[in-house]
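Let's practice the habit of predicting before peeking. Look at the sequence and jot down your guess about where helices and strands might fall. Then scroll down.
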Amino acid sequence: MTIRFPIALVAGLSVLAVAGCETIGGVREAGHSLDEGRFGDPTMNNILVMTGQRDYYEQLAQRFAAEVPTTINFAFNSAQLSPQAQAVLRQQARWINAFPEVRFSVYGHTDLVGSDAYNLRLGRRRAQAAVNYMIAQGVDRRRLDALVSFGETQPLVATPNPEMRNRRTVTEVSGFMQDHPMVLDGRYADIVYRTYVASGGSGE
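Done guessing? Here is the structure:
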């Protein structure tokens, strides 16, 4: 006799099985889903769709990630910016300053060593250090928002050991400045396709 299970049940069990392979101590690697649980994502997505900004936002986000390193790393148990991290942040600041109509977010991460509460605080300190450095490079503080610490919840490498790739901040495009004249005029394409020329510091 053949036992038949509903397709939805089989699909659900398959998803659970795959999900179980991606975790370590209940923590999933970064990128395990399209929605990584950032604060305000549903609201932001609705605004972008309803105002016709979604496609332009995605194009600009892809361009930023292609033209500038988006991630810096940290030493163990530290929020101190290394010379390499400062060089990357200078590149990010130049790009951000070239697009004054755009908002950005900085997210802090840690490895899995230490308590959840401590790592949340450490992730925020790392994000704040990155933001403070870019402000010193001339970036308007109002354009750097959603300072969120993910702590140890989104490791790039799921290991309980110290791992520098997990100790990071990530800078991303988060939307448009709604009160900027070009945004008010709906000139999103002019913003996205503006020529960006990295001035100086080509070795960085």
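How did you do? The chain is about 40% helix and 15% strand.
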